[in-house]
Specification:
By secondary structure, this protein is α/β, with parallel strands linked by helices. It has 17 helices and nine strands. The protein is 56% helix and 11% strand. The chain starts with a strand and ends with a helix. The model has no long low-confidence stretch (mean pLDDT 96). The chain binds nicotinamide-adenine-dinucleotide and magnesium ion (5 copies). Pathway: Amino-acid biosynthesis; L-valine biosynthesis; L-valine from pyruvate: step 2/4; Amino-acid biosynthesis; L-isoleucine biosynthesis; L-isoleucine from 2-oxobutanoate: step 2/4.
């Protein structure tokens, strides 16, 4: 894989451009603020503005942070780069209604996830550069790390080099400069394709990071509680301690985690891990990946969205009512400091 750093980026390409960030959520606020700070640090003439749908309650937040807020259509006509950071399920509608007819000739259309372009839900105009800058971390981490002088790594990709732009690899240079301005050049900028970013991202979040871990924690919690152990103990063993274990893996790999735990725990890891995550689990993971690659997952998600998200809403309601949430709320109130960075109450809009 090709890996780039700050020295490989030409910051002037970003510093002189007007950038519209569509959406001001997890990624949107981080992109808008990091880009603005980087343009100011480079003494550039470019400006970052935020675009939101009419009447959005989030406008106050973006204005409070000093951004001019525009409609998507106005922003599209104003910007040299349009970064689309609205939820994936609304992006194709935003493209059709607000961007397609309004973006400047030869401008750049940017994404932080390849889904809509890769699965053909957005078919960009030929004159546009179409690029991706996908930070490999949640938006709040992307902003915090930047402020600390560090940077979350990012993937970049070029879907098309627009007929109306600079040519000669300009789209890639622009993506590199954007990633650098996000802080990613301080760690690593990795070049990939819309297809690979999209499919690996969907697989990782479903099978391992979000779906895998949450359901592993729930199954373990339920097993202990059904066997008669107190919910409090089941919560500590199966949920609370995952952070400590994951931190050890994050800092030094799986071997580092195994070095730190007791020999008893390490032996149990080798002996029991494969009884829980079996060959059948891996075979199912392959079927999950296949559904993603063939577009079946995205089609199902978009269909649910088109009819008002009944499947998503029902699952969310069911999961929020799980006993692990109630006992967790009680236990975390005894450790109020661990909720200092909790986002769910502060940030939901
Ligand atoms: P989010 O749900 O946190 O925020 C979406 C924002 O879009 C909100 O500010 C909302 O008000 C706004 N919005 C909704 N409808 C809109 C419309 N019609 N016009 C303009 N704005 C609208 O979204 P997110 O999690 O930041 O995801 C944005 C993109 O970033 C997605 O493509 C996602 O896959 C990608 N991404 C997210 C993360 C992450 O950390 N959450 C990480 C990598 C990539
Ligand atoms: Mg969200
Ligand atoms: Mg991801
Ligand atoms: Mg994702
Ligand atoms: Mg233990
Ligand atoms: Mg040990």
């Amino acid at each position: 894989m090709k890996v780039y750093h700050d020295a490989d980026t030409d910051r002037s390409l970003i510093a002189s451009r007007n950038i519209a960030v569509i959406g001001y959520g997890s990624q949107g606020h981080a992109h808008a603020q990091n880009l603005r700070d980087s343009i100011a640090a480079a003494g550039g003439s470019g400006e970052v503005r935020v675009a939101l749908r009419e009447g959005s309650a989030t406008a106050k937040k973006a204005e409070g942070a000093g951004f001019t807020v525009m409609s998507n259509a106005e922003a599209a006509a104003w910007a040299d780069i349009v970064m689309v950071l609205a939820p994936d399920e609304y992006q194709s509608e935003i493209w059709r209604n607000d961007l397609r007819g309004n973006m400047k000739d030869g401008a750049a259309l940017a994404f932080a996830h390849g889904l809509n372009v890769h699965f053909g839900l957005i078919e960009p105009r030929e004159d546009l550069d179409v690029i991706m800058i996908a930070p490999k971390g949640p938006g709040h981490t992307v902003r915090n790390e930047y402020e600390q002088g560090r940077g979350v790594p990012a993937l970049i990709a070029v879907h098309q080099e627009g007929s109306g732009s600079g040519g000669n690899g300009f789209a890639k240079s622009l993506a590199l400069a954007y990633a650098g301005a996000m802080g990613a050049g301080r760690s690593a900028i990795i070049e990939t394709s819309f297809k690979d970013e999209c499919e690996t991202d969907l697989f990782g979040e479903q099978a391992v990071l979000c779906g895998g871990i949450s359901h592993l924690v729930l199954a373990g919690f339920e097993t202990l509680v059904e066997a008669g152990y107190p919910e409090e103990m089941a919560y500590f063993e199966c949920l609370h301690e995952t952070k400590l274990i994951v931190d050890l893996m994050y800092e030094g790999g799986i071997a580092n985690m195994r070095y730190s735990i007791s020999n008893t725990a390490e032996y149990g890891d080798y002996h029991t891990g494969p009884r829980v995550i079996t060959d059948e689990t891996k075979a199912e993971m392959k079927r999950v990946l296949d559904d993603i690659q063939r577009g079946k997952f995205v089609q199902r998600f978009m269909t649910d969205n088109a009819v008002g998200n009944p499947e998503m809403k029902a699952a969310r309601q069911r999961q929020e009512a799980h006993p692990i949430e109630k006992v967790g709320t009680k236990l975390r109130s005894m450790m109020p400091w661990i909720g200092d960075n909790k986002l769910v109450d502060k940030e939901k809009n």
